[in-house]
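Section 3.1: Structural characterization of target chains.
Under the original work plan, the team committed to producing a structural model for every single-chain target entering the pipeline before any wet-lab resources were allocated. The record below documents one such target. The sequence was received from the expression subgroup and is listed exactly as submitted; it comprises 110 residues.
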Amino acid sequence: MFANLPDKLPVRAQNLLALSEGMLASAKADDWEAVIEADAMRRPMIDQLIAEGAPNDAPPAEWMREFLEELQAINDQVVKLGEERKAEIRSDLGEIQTGSKAVKAYDPER
């Protein structure tokens, strides 16, 4: 897995990682409603894990830093997939608008 992560992550971290990986799988499957739901569930989990991992404003352990970097990498992949899908939709809409203009040119009553 990761160089500085312990062999057994805390249960909350395991759950968070599993949810994040599920979110990425949903994005790859083009299930954006599931991505939104997973993201809403993840946010408080991340906050809680950070709060528990850094008591009294102590700096997080090395594994926590690396763990959060992995979550960020997953997020980056989800964002990239979302941007790609947005571009596809924008292109599809452009084609529809072009087709609609062509139809109107041949049939002004539409």
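The two ends are 59 Å apart (CA to CA).
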